[in-house]
Design a protein that fits this description.
Blueprint lengths: L7 H4 L2 H11 L5 E2 L2 H4 L16 E3 L4 H14 L2 E5 L15 E5 L6 E5 L4 E4 L5 H8 L4 E2 L12 H7 L6 H4 L6 E7 L5 E5 L10 H5 L8 E8 L1 E2 L3 E9 L2 H13 L6 E6 H11 L9 E9 L1 H17 L4 E4 L3 H12 L1 H6 L4 E4 L2 E2 L5 H15 L3 E6 L4 E8 L6 H18 L24 H14 L17 H4 L18
Parallel strand pairs: 2-4, 3-4
Antiparallel strand pairs: 1-2, 5-6, 6-10, 7-11, 8-9, 8-10, 12-14, 12-15, 13-14, 13-18, 16-19, 17-19, 18-19
Helix pairs in contact: 9-11, 9-14, 10-12, 14-15
């Protein structure tokens, strides 16, 4: 995966740049030693590694502002970084750029139960928000599998989801306001504790912008009251296709579960060996369906789900009888990624989204691809919203296997687009899917997206090399299009 060619003139000024940054972030806030920077050389897409030129660890919004203003003035590239859990290479460093680490922004600023909001710094973990309000019966709904480690700032960058996003939405549906710093150092506030803001939805643009538009330094999120009753149903199927049919049937019946997750046989066995959740091992797929709400409603919906599952060919059905049992059901699913890591030296965790009705077709096609590429695949996915997470198993020590895994992954993502889906659901584009963007968007589409980038970062210094296969200069995108020598709207006066 090619990244922008390092600027030799910038590298030659490394000592000067480091000294200037130390004046802004004193003490241990600037790291230049190679061994100390090694921890920042990759994110969760570990197939790619690159040492940054310098690492900067600010503690205040003012320091972030001064760092970005300085880098903007002298043309230094900046890669914002949270916990480094990005699975798409979103925080991959640049050899001639700085890593702007936000790990020291780890304070909870305000908890407002009256408005049901929490305001935090971006380095607070996803689970940390829920833990801070759990004693009052509240929680933060988006819950990616990495929630114990991933930060809320990174969640905004990637628009993270989780097992409960089907009913309660992704990050974008649960963030009310942010403070952010633009590349020129300006500090901007978008939204707040109020429900909605007038004007353009700039908060919506920032959520999922992958660090290309600004650096988030404060976040206000919506918290929810924990439901009265939560119960989960563990359903086994004779094939992944019948499990996919059941997902579509549940949604078609008008039932929106709190969460609906599916795992195929390789993922089931890996998770069971790791967590001992009591998953059935004689099935090809399991579906975990969680219902929440008033007890009477939950009990009724469980009966409806059981009926639908039997009609779809379920071979086993188990309903949680206690909170501990419900949590055990989810423990296996939450641990699926590390569990698969125990059965393969390496794996690529893909992320694509498809229409729910296409699940059986896509699962069949993926099985065919697995044979063609000669690599195993374990499937774990947010079945309710069609967000697939195929885990492609390979051994990086075997020549050609990484390339084969990447080719396999690319074929899966192209298939997602082919059936009416998209390249990503929550992991972002980063570098992993960057060169596949042309399979989803036309050149006109891409240029229009880049104009948004130009409005925030005209010199392209924030996280370059990510998302866009070919990043045009903003001046080029601002030129008027001339078709066959004719100006558009020739009757309008020109100034």
């Amino acid at each position: 995966m090619k990244m922008p060619t390092p600027d030799a003139s910038v590298l030659a000024r490394r000592v000067e740049i480091a000294n200037a940054l130390r004046a802004i972030v004193p003490g241990e806030g600037v790291i230049v030693e190679q061994d100390e920077m090694r921890v920042y050389e990759t994110d969760a897409l570990t197939a790619y590694r690159q040492l940054p030129m310098i690492v900067v660890l600010p503690k205040t919004t003012e320091q972030v502002s001064q760092v970005l203003k300085y880098c903007n003035e002298i043309g230094i590239k900046v890669v914002p970084r949270g916990a480094g859990t990005s699975l798409s290479g979103g925080a991959l460093p640049l050899a001639d750029g700085i890593i702007l680490g936000l790990g020291k922004f780890n304070k909870i600023m305000d908890i407002d139960y009256g408005n049901r909001t929490v305001t935090v710094q971006p380095g607070v973990t996803n689970l940390g928000i829920t833990n801070a309000v759990a004693h009052e019966g509240f929680y933060y709904a988006p819950d990616p599998s990495s929630q114990i480690a991933c930060t809320i700032g990174g969640n905004i960058a990637e628009n993270s989801g989780g097992v409960h996003c089907l009913k309660y939405g992704l990050t974008t549906n649960n963030v009310l306001g942010i403070e952010m710093v633009l590349m020129n150092g300006d500090v901007v506030r978008l939204g707040g504790k109020h429900l909605d803001s007038d004007g353009y939805d700039l908060l919506g643009i920032m959520t999922g912008s992958e660090g290309l538009l600004g650096v988030v330094t404060e976040v206000t999120v919506r918290i929810l009251k924990k439901p009265e009753t939560l119960r989960a149903v563990l359903i086994g199927f004779p094939s992944s296709e019948t499990g996919g049919d059941c997902v579509a049937a549940i949604i078609a019946a008008g039932i929106i579960p709190g969460g609906m997750e599916m795992m195929d046989k390789p993922a089931i066995h890996a998770a069971e060996e790791f967590v001992h959740a009591g998953y059935p091992l004689d099935v090809e797929a399991i579906l975990i369906v969680e219902l929440d709400g008033p007890e009477a409603e939950v009990n009724h919906l469980i009966g409806e789900v059981e009926t639908i599952a039997r009609k779809c060919g379920a071979v086993s059905i188990r309903v949680s009888s206690s909170e501990d049992e419900r949590m055990v059901f989810w423990a296996g699913r939450k641990a699926a990624f590390p569990a698969v890591g125990r059965i393969s030296p390496d794996y690529l965790c893909m992320d694509g989204t498809i229409p729910r009705k296409e699940l059986p077709l896509v699962l069949n096609r993926m099985a065919e691809m697995s044979e063609r590429h000669g690599l195993r695949v374990a499937n774990v996915f947010h079945a309710g919203d069609g967000n697939l997470h195929p885990l492609i198993l390979y051994d990086a020590n075997k020549p050609g296997e990484l390339q084969a895994a990447e080719d396999f992954g690319a074929d899966i993502l192209k298939l997602c687009v082919e059936v009416g889906g998209v390249l990503t659901g929550e992991h972002g584009v980063g570098v992993e899917k960057r060169d596949l963007m042309i399979h989803q968007f036309t050149e006109t589409d891409m240029n229009q997206q880049q104009r948004v980038k130009c409005a925030f970062d005209p010199d392209g210094l924030l996280n370059p090399g990510k998302v866009f296969p070919q990043l045009h200069r903003c001046a080029e995108l601002g030129r008027m299009h001339i078709h066959r020598g004719q100006l558009p709207f020739p009757d309008l006066p020109r100034f």
